């Protein structure tokens, strides 16, 4: 079978005709997927045009701040004596600044190859949307016509995921968030638990001290009540002694008075 690849040996007319026939057969054979036209990289796409629009708006806003009034406030003497010359200088300054900014921006775009990169991004996004729409359409057709086949395929896929680890890009956002936050939350939970345990021990120690102090206070109160009872008894005894002295005085006075009356 003649080879269709080029070689270093000269090609004879017969071989060349065979190669041409093979090439024609290959060209007439249907290709599995039609080739797509490559994107035009020289023309800016939607994102590149949006970038230019943002730059134009930012530059316009900056140059609007450099108005003639603000410019003249920096040069009061020329503004008063030669306003026309100063106005011309202001126009030249603003125009030159605009040209320099645009030139620098264009140089950066060319140096970083921004337009091509943004066009590639536009092409990738468009291709992804197209593939997503095509896949959704194919899935809908498959669901309507081949439910049993899809069920078996889904069962095999679930079996594969069950037997092996699930790829990260297929995990739900909650699982990814939990995977990122679990170490941080575990560390903070351990710290809080340790502090809580320390505070609980301190609270138990304080409760024991309060119980002991309460018992001491109860003992002191009982002692004070006993002292008060003793003082009350002593006061009562002192009151009875004073009454006896008063009675004895009355009897002595009565006896003295009676003796004096008998003598008379």
**Secondary-structure element pattern, one letter each:** HHHHHHHH
Percent in helix: over 70%
List segments where confidence is low: pLDDT < 50 over at least 5 consecutive residues: 1-18, 21-32
By secondary-structure content and strand pairing, the structural class works out as: mainly alpha
Straight-line distance between termini: 186 Å
Share of β-strand residues? under 5%
Task: Kindly provide the radius of gyration, computed on alpha-carbon positions and rounded to a whole number of angstroms.
Answer: 54 Å
Mean pLDDT metric: 76
| Helix segment tally | 8
The outline comes out as elongated
Number of strands: 0
Major beta-sheet overview: none
How would you characterize the overall build of this protein?
Residues 1-18 and 21-32 have low confidence and may be disordered. It is elongated, with a radius of gyration of 54 Å. The chain is mostly helical and 264 residues long. The chain contains 8 helices and no strands.
């Amino acid at each position: 079978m003649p080879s269709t690849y080029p070689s270093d040996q000269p090609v004879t007319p017969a071989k060349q005709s065979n190669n041409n026939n093979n090439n024609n057969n290959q060209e007439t054979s249907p290709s599995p997927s039609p080739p797509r036209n490559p994107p035009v990289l020289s023309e800016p796409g939607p994102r590149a045009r949006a970038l230019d629009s943002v730059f134009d708006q930012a530059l316009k806003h900056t140059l609007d701040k450099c108005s003639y009034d603000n410019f003249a406030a920096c040069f009061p003497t020329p503004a008063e004596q030669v306003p026309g010359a100063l106005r011309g200088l202001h126009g030249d300054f603003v125009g030159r600044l605009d040209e320099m900014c645009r030139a620098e921006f264009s140089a950066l775009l060319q140096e970083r190859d921004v337009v091509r990169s943004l066009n590639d991004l536009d092409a990738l996004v468009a291709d992804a949307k197209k593939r997503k729409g095509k896949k959704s359409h194919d899935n809908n057709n498959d669901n309507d016509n081949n439910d049993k086949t899809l069920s078996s395929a889904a069962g095999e896929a679930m079996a594969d995921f069950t037997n092996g680890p699930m790829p990260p890009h297929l995990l739900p956002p909650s699982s990814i968030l939990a995977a990122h936050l679990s170490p941080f939350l575990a560390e903070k939970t351990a710290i809080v638990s340790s502090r809580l345990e320390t505070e609980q021990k301190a609270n138990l120690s304080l409760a024991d001290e309060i119980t002991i102090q309460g018992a001491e206070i109860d003992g002191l109160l009982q002692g004070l009540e006993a002292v008060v009872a003793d003082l009350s008894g002593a006061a009562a005894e002192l009151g009875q002694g004073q009454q006896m002295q008063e009675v004895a005085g009355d009897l002595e006075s009565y006896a003295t008075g009676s003796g004096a009356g008998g003598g008379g």
